[in-house]
């Protein structure tokens, strides 16, 4: 883990932006997260570009991956870009704040193209997620393909070993369409299903602050799904959509458009009107559909997707982000199987090692 300029002042410098966790606290926490994943983490921080370059060169000999928060160098240092490339190691770039909602100059990174992934806006939890990405990618490599000109229009495809054709599972992540939440949240599930003989496509789409919203995000999803089902060794007649939270809403809307066989909704957001009126997602729903009270705005808020595919909803009763009533309401109005899990929250559904995912696998095998 390499932290760049001014990160030595974590917890002191602009705590309203960067939080109150100190660098020493962060290093201990990241080491603990790494240990749980079977990773040994060494930490380095410097305010000097040359020292960071030297450490990246050394990493060729003593590391298998890089977690990088290069501070303001991110936006200017082509020398660090080249050092990352020269390391020949997989790297994840970290930003504690949401750079997409700050000054224009912070939104562009010259080092990100040298990394396999970038995380921003999640606070120090982003470091944990970076470790997870490196761990998952090491055990389950992906081919990232583009389906449009925007940098967010990409799909991570995993093809199982063995001859096809293979059933196709398309993953649509949640996060209330906010820019800081990306497809890495579904990475573990996609990797696990690929190991079980499925061709998996983990979709990124344009979100709020990065060109998304209605209908752009939905149009991206449709395009990505259609491309995923025609990948080499894919069986286009066996298509399952797996969405989490707001990604479930996109999956439910997309299913009839792409003739999906099955839709799996994890902690599903199903009725935008009721969710908006009850304050779910803060102002994200209003931002997603547009703030003007036009007919389109009103129609989309009241949309309850019609789905002809087999529909499986899994929801925890302890979910405080998307209440279980969202899935109950949908299941009462549509043919759907609803699995309610006592004392399960919102994010437990994204862990392939936990019981909820095993229950999904059992349903998919039926």
* Order of H and E elements: EHHEHEHEEHEEEHEHEHEHHHEHEH
Number of strands: 13
| Residues in β-strands, percent | 15-25%
> What gyration radius follows from the Cα positions, in whole Å?
21 Å
Low-confidence runs (pLDDT<50, min 5 residues)?
Answer: none
Count of helical segments?
13
Task: Tell me about this structure.
- This protein has 366 residues and is α/β, with parallel strands linked by helices.
- It contains 13 helices and 13 strands.
- It has helices at residues 15-18, 23-36, 49-62, 78-87, 125-139, 187-195, 216-228, 246-258, 272-277, 284-289, 295-301, 325-333, 355-364; strands spanning 2-3, 44-45, 66-69, 91-95, 117-120, 143-146, 154-158, 166-172, 199-203, 234-244, 262-266, 310-316, 337-341.
- The strands form 2 sheets. It has an 8-stranded mixed beta sheet, sandwiched between helices. Strands 2-1-3-4-5 form a 5-stranded parallel beta sheet, with helices on both faces.
- Strand 8 (166-172), helix 6 (187-195) and strand 9 (199-203) form a beta-alpha-beta unit.
- Helix 3 packs parallel to helix 4 (78-87) and helix 7 (216-228) crosses helix 8.
- The protein is globular.
- The mean pLDDT is 92.
Keywords:
single chain, 366 residues, alpha/beta, 13 helices, globular, 8-stranded mixed sheet, 13 strands, 5-stranded parallel sheet, 36% helix
SSE blueprint:
Blueprint: E1 2-3, H1 15-18, H2 23-36, E2 44-45, H3 49-62, E3 66-69, H4 78-87, E4 91-95, E5 117-120, H5 125-139, E6 143-146, E7 154-158, E8 166-172, H6 187-195, E9 199-203, H7 216-228, E10 234-244, H8 246-258, E11 262-266, H9 272-277, H10 284-289, H11 295-301, E12 310-316, H12 325-333, E13 337-341, H13 355-364
Parallel strand pairs: 1-2, 1-3, 3-4, 4-5, 8-9, 8-10, 10-11, 11-12, 12-13
Antiparallel strand pairs: 6-7, 7-9
